[in-house]
Amino acid sequence: MRMSPSFHIFSGVGHSPPCWKTAYVVEALCQGVRIAVQVLPKAALVEAKQVEHAAAERRLLAAVDSPFCARLAAAFQDAHRLYLLLEWVPGAPRAF
Fold this sequence. Notes:
The protein is of the alpha+beta class. The protein has one domain (7-87): Phosphorylase Kinase, domain 1 (2-Layer Sandwich). 20% of the residues lie in helices and 40% in strands. It has helices at 42-47, 51-63, and strands spanning 7-15, 22-28, 33-41, 72-77, 81-87. The chain has a five-stranded antiparallel sheet with strand order 1-2-3-5-4. Strand 4 and strand 5 form a beta hairpin. The longest helix has 13 residues, at 51-63. It is globular, with a radius of gyration of 13 Å.
């Protein structure tokens, strides 16, 4: 995966079973903070008919304010992928 030079990738966290979502732990170089990044390939979302599911996940993460849910820091996209930047919680369950 290629990301902005503003981030350093530490490790891959996992894949969802249909292989349309991947998660990484990255460090934002300007702030020195580790965050989790979910990467969703647009073509795979369309093929799996998961576009509305991905949009709903983004809306839900943006709306939730709970100490039991990772906070959505930002969301953006490029021509081929959607990116969700989430609060990194070390040791938390990695179910996504």
